[in-house]
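Q: Hi! New to this. If I give you a protein sequence and the SMILES for nicotinamide-adenine-dinucleotide, can you show me the bound structure?
A: Yes, paste them in.
Q: Okay, here:
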Amino acid sequence: MSRLRAAVIGLGSMGANHARVLAEMDGVELVAVADLDAARVAKATAGRGAAGYTDTRKLLHGTKLDFASVVVPTGLHEAVALAVIEAGAHVLVEKPIAATMQAAQRVARAAAAAGRLLTVGHIERFNPAVRELKRRLEAGQGGRVLQLRARRVGPFPHRIRDVGVIHDLGPHDIDIMRYLLDDEVERVFAEARSHIATGNEDLFAGMLRFRGGALGLLEINWLTPTKERTLSVLCEKGMFVADYAGQKLTFYENHDAVAREGALASVSEGMVVQYPIANREPLRSELEAFRDAILSGGPPRVTAHDGMAALAVAEALVASANSGMPVNVPNVEDFE
Ligand SMILES: NC(=O)c1ccc[n+]([C@@H]2O[C@H](COP(=O)([O-])OP(=O)(O)OC[C@H]3O[C@@H](n4cnc5c(N)ncnc54)[C@H](O)[C@@H]3O)[C@@H](O)[C@H]2O)c1
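A: Thanks. Here is the predicted structure of the protein with nicotinamide-adenine-dinucleotide bound:
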């Protein structure tokens, strides 16, 4: 069978990885790449068969494509994703789906109207530690989930100028919390500060209340000298701790609850188990999943709805931080 013809638009720190993975992927041919920066184009095409462009419109006019990765800065996701859809290709747009819910709505509607698949780069869905965690939660190992806490902190990335840390990093953990709970966020409260003068927030603490009652805590910033990406999931029968970056998963048993078959009468320390996880690059799994969705006619594993749901929560968090008040999250269905 012929290979899917793919392109990558935007070849910065993330786009270069899309190009590398797609160039090596079975069933896919990386036929073209584009970036405003000619040096990045030259680097991405070196030793590969892909054509290089410094003008995305020329790429889209001159190339027959099955799909494209859109890896430009967030403020340009809408315009570039719309151009890809207009050119007749399926599209993977990096997270967040777009800079605003209105922009996300325009992209999602355009993809649906054109009959093209749209997925969003919520890459942690494809992290082997998260997949193992999801499997264990679904098997009932922890019992009911009471609280999820994500910590995503590290140094300021000077290249990100168009959005604040909530829009840039928040969608990862918001998406994973929704996915693990299979539930939507009802209400949020947040505080945020801007210490490095970009005009956008770089220090953020947020609380989420899910419809089913679980709590979410987000600590996200660009001001921490060491990089940490962790998620702890507190359940009736114990606590899971996932290290996204290290692809590790540990369970701290609540001995009392396990001894009483889940009744949460008291809490005591029990066994600690670190599960063996076969490490794999999440981007490779994400792009393979999109390839397979295209071949099977979809839907993609991460849908436009997922992208919009994460963005709606991010927007509510920013609104809460600005107003100092709790904010209800709108129904994503109202935007679809
Ligand atoms: N999923 C993840 O884990 C992850 C990680 C990093 C970044 N991202 C996302 O990827 C996107 C890019 O982030 P980055 O860190 O790679 O940024 P970056 O600044 O390193 O790269 C952006 C690239 O886009 C190019 N560009 C700008 N305008 C363009 C245009 N009109 N046409 C073609 N190219 C254009 C720039 O020249 C630059 O090379 C952002 O949306 C970001 O949120 C996702």
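A: The CA atoms of residues 252 and 286 lie 29 Å apart. Let me know if you'd like me to explain how to read the tokens.
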